[in-house]
Fold each of these.
Amino acid sequence: MATISREQIAPLHERIKVTVSPADYNPAYESALKKYAKNANIPGFRKGMVPTGVVKKMYGAAVFTEEVLRKIENELMQYLQTENIAYLGQPLPEDNNDPAQINHATPQDYTFSFELGLKPNFSIPDLAKAKTTLSLVETTEEMVNEEVERLRQRLGKMTELEAVSNEEDILNVSFQKSDAKGVVEEGAEKKENSLLLKYFSAATQKELMGKKKDEQIILQVGKAFEDKERDWLAKDLGLDKDNKEDLKQYFVMQITKIGFVEKRALDEDFFKEAMPAKEIKNEEDFRSAIKSQIEGYWKHQAQHMLELEIFHLLSEDTKMDFPEDFLKKWLLKSREKEQTPEAIEKDFPSFLNQLHWTLLSNEIGTQQSLQVSREEIMDNLRQQLMGYFGSMNLGGNLDWLDSYVERMMGDKQQVESAYQRVFSSKVLAWAASQAKPTEKKITAEEFQKLSEKHQH
């Protein structure tokens, strides 16, 4: 019977030694030789009639080594299961394990040792007692007006103009990095965009007035746009909105098209097109419906922000110790791509954060019996695909989308990623349901700053 011993190397880091004797591995070895004899094709012998002695002479050494190693591995895994040992990664064979010591000519006891990293013990914080905040944005009349005007413009009639003449004009433009004189950088990518004239600063609007298609100006993003528009445009152009030097970068902006949208009248045809699922007869009801939509949006955002806050709370307040030396060694040996100790060291903090959340979320999932169905995975993949297409008109028949999702379900990596997204959202939704947050009224601008704080 195999003997197994354990010894501590460091906290949560152990060595397990497995010793097997001939009585442990010989039965499997003899059985394997018989299978080889039954199936071997050896010249001079009929299939199934090869003497065991011949098979042993030809394949005995390899089969013997294979069966001894298999027995050691089986004994180790059975021990871990029987003792209910919670471990990280996989047991690591130590470097002094030498398969060359296994000799089928002289059966004897063989001892192999393995390093093991143990999962840490931890407790989940009492979320009901934790200090959390539900940040509620109040829907203002200004928000309603902006959304009404946006819909009137989006569903309005577009006409093409010869020259820029109105702050409501829509300019299709292209940007290319340049110097202050407008000399375009070699190989500079041309980036397209569509902007209302009123998005530009007053000075730039004045410069653009009267410009025609194919004309261009030289500008700096930091000076040419109002604050709100500058932030998202900087991102589109690959700039850091918080980096002053980035915002001083010059661009040649060329006008490729000038358009003007005649806004829709606030009539029943417009209401029906803007909100086809509702029966709206007048402007008052339309504005009320818009307000309800905005309130629903901000309520959803507040819940999402609460979940992010709880994610940070769980991550920071759930203390875990890790066998770091073991994990670094495990990462170095187990990765498919060749890794260097320097690369492992660099990525290790990120790896620990991910491991921390995996252990924590799995524990919550186990305690609360959280499950993810195939339909939920498919729905997540479908939403992800729809996100790629954005606001494109995809037409009424989306059978092709379901067919594409079915193909994605055959990709193990895609399915695993979708599973983790759905599972994490369920964990955070449960955690948020346990919290007793203090409600706080804030503005949309304050919410945006809070959201940026929680970006990962």
Note: The chain has 15 helices and eleven strands.
Amino acid sequence: MATSYNLKEIYGNSISSLSSRRDEVEAQFCARYRSVPEKWFSSPGRAEVVGNHTDHNLGKVLVSAVSCDILCAASPREKTAEIVSLGFHAVHIDLDDLDPHPREKGKSAAFVRGVLAYLKKHGYAIGGFEAVSHSNIFRGAGVSSSAAFGVLIAQIENVLHLGGVLTPVEMAKAAQYAENVYFGKPSGLLDQMGVARGGLSAIDFENLADPKCESVPVPERYTLVLTNTGGSHAGLTAHYAAIKDEMLKVAAHFGKKHLREVRYADVLSEINPLRSELGERAVLRAMHFFEENERVDRAVAALRAGDDNAFLEQVRASGESSLRWLQNCCVPGKTAQPFVLALKISEGLMKEGAFRMMGGGFTGTVLAFCKKGTEREYGEGMAKVFGSDSVFYTDMRPVGTIELNF
């Protein structure tokens, strides 16, 4: 079941730190459990390329796994699941107690308990495990460290106890359930699908039970540079929820459950009633949804045609729409605006390529496609403002959450 990809393909530029990370995880595992681990796993971060806040209304996205990851060593055990993330307290779950624990909301334990509960609820014969992990994914900064962790738990179960029967979609759904119901964050399925599936993927969520997924050619002439602007997603759940809720309210105005079921032309014809009922921001966010779906289609067509310039144009337009119409690049009422500052600085540094905000927004990570050979100049410029530890040079990773073969 272990991956057939070589480690260089999986880790790209970050392979230089893999050996030391592996040694540290194995040493901690051996010290804690008095045995060597039976299996190794890798669960990546993800880059949202185009398709910002569309998945929760059955929209379209273009998403890629990236080469930062959670590296994990694990072995099976019987009645409990335990995972130690280096630098954090151990999470210990009794398999006979999988109901939600309110005190675990917002904590890692919620993901473990929630994923196990989802799998058991859907008829899978779950088992316990002991695990040690190390992450180099920016936490709480829009690269989906939480989705990577949730899908990791599903893959550990998949390999240790389920014979590999779980599909990427099923693992993604388990992680999303844990995040929504146990962790307490109303995420769509984009993050989990990007992490579970890997590669550069166009995903259409119109049929949420069976999303349409297609692999898309990677723009080979560009390197990804991620800049963590220093904020955290903690305490921002209400702002994320408002985006989804306002879009759903626009759909409800037309008697529909999701915006995907509404025609853009109908929204335009009802602007004044919608303004009166829901306010202008809800209307603007709905406009963003429809236009973002069109941008995904154009970006995919450009990549398949080998037209990098047309692709980058859609990346830029997506970021601009998030800033102006979706309005998720700074926290309402706050003078701290590191995200917007990072976008402005990127504007001056970018020589050839494109940049945009990424993920849930309000704070977090800026994604830049830099033409190979220019990425260091861009990254060093961003590091002068946000710190060298906040700039990450990465690659689009061809696989999602997997068992590794060391």
Note: DSSP finds 13 helices and twelve strands in the chain.
